[in-house]
């Protein structure tokens, strides 16, 4: 790093001007002289290590310096902070809240890929539609990527193989990157989540013998399958039960079960019901063993479900590849969001290498016209939708539920964790580059079962419920 842009040097002023020493910016120098200044040699060393050219290295230096300048606009305050905690501690603290590697990856224009052959883990559910459809519909190939999609049976396998480096990136439940980052259920590993894959797309399904038990207040003693502890399914089912006076930890049994196993266990009456992604709710109806009690969109319309995620170390080692992967998945997500494309998408993902389901089942899910197992044909166009924007307020809500149900015992810096993992600002920039419109803010209020959630008051929200452990 050039000395003029070294924000962690407590003994020198932070000079935001050009590295050549003249009183102009780096951009002004390039406009005037046609190239970046050659005075400093440190960026060349950095560039050789990171696979960047000198101009990219200087831009990276400047980005980091600008961040520190924004945090410490007064020079005496910056120097005092650095002298108090030391250079390494300061760098680690700022990096934990602001993942520079991910920010720099998004800032890159299209550059040669560090890695073009990728392995991505996924579960065979319709939530994975954008990530899966990007293969047969050519979105990966358009970005120069050769992706091997690895179908797995359960979420713990996806997590473990991603952390072990067997998967370069993965289809994950949207709370999983938050949990992994905080060390819940696995060794703490910084994760990033740049794009939501789907909203809605889940349901509570009961065994056909429970047609007379539509009131959840009658469900005491019943057994329900959930796909994972750190899932929207778990949090929404718990929320629904508690709002109806049922304590999910004492009045019913919740069992973690791989989604592909749920229909068989419902048929065998090992469970009374489940909450899961499609197509398994619709498959239970198709097989005549269950009925759809309630779509999760009826609890929280446009709630997040699954996401595209990677370790921060993968992003920082492969910034160009990560940017290309993001472009491919967001382009696929926006394609899948168009109802006119849904039949084509259903046919593309139905095969044995992907979801391995009857096209009829997938069409009922993706088009929103379906039999519910109670003799009705429902028309719910928003049964599942695809919206990539990673609202940080959604992350805060997930964190409140981890706190409410005792998965997290300690205090949480809700906003910091949400900003660190859900890369909303960067997603907005990249979506704009692709010609898509993204929301202007990173957070908003949400309404869950008639109750408004304000992400600026998470602790008050946790304490507002009669049933919970938080």
Explain what this protein looks like in three dimensions.
This protein is an alpha/beta fold and 470 residues long. Among the domains are: 3-98, no CATH class; 117-199 and 304-360 and 383-434, Periplasmic binding protein-like II (D-Maltodextrin-Binding Protein, domain 2), CATH 3.40.190. 41% of the residues lie in helices and 15% in strands. The protein has 21 helices and 16 strands. The protein is globular. Mean pLDDT is 88; it is low at 38-55.
Which key features would you list for this structure?
470 residues, alpha/beta, D-Maltodextrin-Binding Protein, domain 2, 5-stranded mixed beta sheet, 21 helices, 16 strands, globular
Count of strand segments: 16
Discrete helix count: 21
Q: What is the radius of gyration? A: 24 Å
Q: Give the strand order of the largest sheet, numbering strands 1, 2, ... along the chain.
A: 2-1-3-11-4
* Principal-axis shape: globular
- What share of the residues does DSSP label as strand, in percent? 5-15%
Q: Which CATH architecture of the domain at 117-199 and 304-360 and 383-434?
A: 3-Layer(aba) Sandwich
Which class best fits the helix and strand makeup? alpha/beta
Topology-level CATH name of the domain at 117-199 and 304-360 and 383-434: D-Maltodextrin-Binding Protein, domain 2
| Overall average residue pLDDT | 88
């Amino acid at each position: 790093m050039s000395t003029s842009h070294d924000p962690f040097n407590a003994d020198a002023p932070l000079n935001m001007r050009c590295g050549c020493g003249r009183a102009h910016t780096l951009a002004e120098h390039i406009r005037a002289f046609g190239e970046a200044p050659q005075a400093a040699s440190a960026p060349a060393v950095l560039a050789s290590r990171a696979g960047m050219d000198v101009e990219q290295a200087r831009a990276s230096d400047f980005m980091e310096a600008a961040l520190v300048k924004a945090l410490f606009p007064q020079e005496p305050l910056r120097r005092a902070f650095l002298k108090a905690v030391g250079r390494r501690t300061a760098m680690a603290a700022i990096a934990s809240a602001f993942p520079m590697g991910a920010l720099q990856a998004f800032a890159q224009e299209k550059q040669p890929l560090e890695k073009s052959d990728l392995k991505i883990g996924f579960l065979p559910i319709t939530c994975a539609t954008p990530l899966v459809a990007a293969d047969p519909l050519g979105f990966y190939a358009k970005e120069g990527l050769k992706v091997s999609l690895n179908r797995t049976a359960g979420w713990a396998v996806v997590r473990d193989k991603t952390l072990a480096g067997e998967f370069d990136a993965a289809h994950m439940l949207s709370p999983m990157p938050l949990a992994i980052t905080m060390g819940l259920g696995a060794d703490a590993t910084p994760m990033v989540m740049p794009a939501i894959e789907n909203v809605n797309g889940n349901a509570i399904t009961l065994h056909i013998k429970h047609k007379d038990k539509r009131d959840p207040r009658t469900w005491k003693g019943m057994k329900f399958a959930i796909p994972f502890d750190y899932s929207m399914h778990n949090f929404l089912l718990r929320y629904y039960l508690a709002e109806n006076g049922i304590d999910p930890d004492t009045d019913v049994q919740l069992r973690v079960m791989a989604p592909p196993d749920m229909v068989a266990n419902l048929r065998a009456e090992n469970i009374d019901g489940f909450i899961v992604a499609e197509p398994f709710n619709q498959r239970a109806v198709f097989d005549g063993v269950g009925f759809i009690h309630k779509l999760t969109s009826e609890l929280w319309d446009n709630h997040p479900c699954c996401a595209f995620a990677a370790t921060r170390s993968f992003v920082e080692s492969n910034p160009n590849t990560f940017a290309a992967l993001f472009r491919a998945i967001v382009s696929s997500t926006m394609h899948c969001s168009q109802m006119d494309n849904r039949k084509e998408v259903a046919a593309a993902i139905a095969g044995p290498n992907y979801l391995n389901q009857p096209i009829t089942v997938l069409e009922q899910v993706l088009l929103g016209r379906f039999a519910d197992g109670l003799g009705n044909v429902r028309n719910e166009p928003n049964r599942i939708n695809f919206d990539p924007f990673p609202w940080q307020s959604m992350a805060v809500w997930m964190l409140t539920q981890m706190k409410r149900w005792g998965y997290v015992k300690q205090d949480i810096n809700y906003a910091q964790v949400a900003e660190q993992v859900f890369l909303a600002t960067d997603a907005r920039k990249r979506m704009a580059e692709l010609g898509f419109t993204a929301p202007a803010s990173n957070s908003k209020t949400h309404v869950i079962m008639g109750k408004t959630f304000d992400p600026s008051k998470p602790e008050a929200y946790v304490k507002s419920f009669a049933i919970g452990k938080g």
